[in-house]
Amino acid sequence: MNKVYWVSRHDLSPAQDSAIRDLHGEDAEVVKDPVVFSSVEGLADYIGSHDGFVYAVAGAPHYLHAALESCKFGVFENHPARRQDGTFGLAAVYHVEGSLKKVWVNPDPASDQGEALIPVAR
Predict the structure, then answer these.
(1) What is the span of the domain harbouring residue 32?
(2) Which pLDDT value is given to residue 122?
């Protein structure tokens, strides 16, 4: 079973949860951690001290520092327009692994279903 960390104060949306399972397997263990980073090194340090794949909501300096430190992590991109219910649909998932790679896509802003562009990580 793959362990995935969701570093955010917010719960995963249904589309984010679906994308994680598409990418890491239906049996992936998702651990929510509402940590707030106090330094630019925070995300990189967090990734280095955890044994699973990390998806994080953080500021741009945290992402840039982690990428420059060769950390592997994921980020979500929402569609730019709000749905009628006020939420934003998930447009894409990117993995940072030496480069930025789109790994999951959903072209329909009204849908929570997308398509993995890479094989399931085992």
Answers:
(1) 3-116
(2) 61
Sign of the CA dihedral running 58, 61, 67, 69: negative
Average pLDDT of the residues in 5-33: 96
Give the global pTM. 0.93
Q: Is residue 121 part of a domain?
A: no
Domain membership of residue 34 (yes or no) is: yes
Q: What is the DSSP string of 12-71?
A: PPHHHHHHHHHHH-TT-EEEEE----SSTTHHHHHHHT-SSEEEE---HHHHHHHHHTT-
Token pair 């562009």 in the structure block, residue: 117
Return the closest-CA partner of residue 3 out of 33, 31, 26. 31
> Tens of pLDDT along 61-115?
999 999 999 999 999 999 999 999 999 999 999 999 999 999 999 999 999 999 9
Helix (H, G, I), strand (E, B) or coil at 82: strand
Query: Could you give the maximum distance between any two Cα atoms of the chain, in Å?
Result: 40
Task: Let me know if residue 122 belongs to a domain.
Answer: no
Count of domains in the chain? 1
